[in-house]
Amino acid sequence: MVPAKLILQEAWATEANWDLPLPDELQSRFSVWYHGLSCISQLKFERRIEQKKHFQEKENSVHGLQVVRGDDDVLRVKTRIIERDDDLSFLYPILLPSKHYLTECLIRRISFKKAKATCQELKVGDIVLIEMENKKRVMWPMGKIEKIYSSRDGASRVVRVRTSSGCLTRPIQKLYPLEVSTSGDPVLTLTTENRSRYGRLFKSSKK
Questions:
Q1: What phi and psi values does residue 55 have, to the nearest 5 degrees?
Q2: β strands within the chain, DSSP E
Q3: Residue 187: its pLDDT value, please?
């Protein structure tokens, strides 16, 4: 389109009347440019991403997204970032359907990280991790639920947990259930240690 723009500018500079013909040099250049337009239909460009007209997700949150399909046959979402030189995976993040295997794995992983006892039904005998704000997660003690205290409204908010160092009463928000239970695994037992108030361990007699 640049040659056509130059021809138009030069024609405007001649200040020729509408009814007067253009100079021969401009007419010949325009004819060459005009006949070259027929070659445009033969040009082929590889489309990196094409618009996908139909998407099977039925949720309302997906309908507003611009779903596209890349040359790798992967569904992506077109973002509004246009003035940054970023990677394709950032400009067009991959869109996974809700029933995709990777989507379900991600949901399970996130749910496990944010797993709270409030989201699960606790029962006596469950093994839980007890959150300690002043310790790292790997140092949290493990315990067994001995008793569940119910409030007046019938909801369970506090439990008594037995650990290796004694019994603790904790709110269920501080508990992280493990996928084990003493009812299903009779081998799993917790041993308690009897200590004095000074921390000295009492040893049982062998007699």
A1: -140, 135
A2: 49-51, 67-70, 75-77, 126-130, 142-150, 156-163, 166-171, 175-181
A3: 46
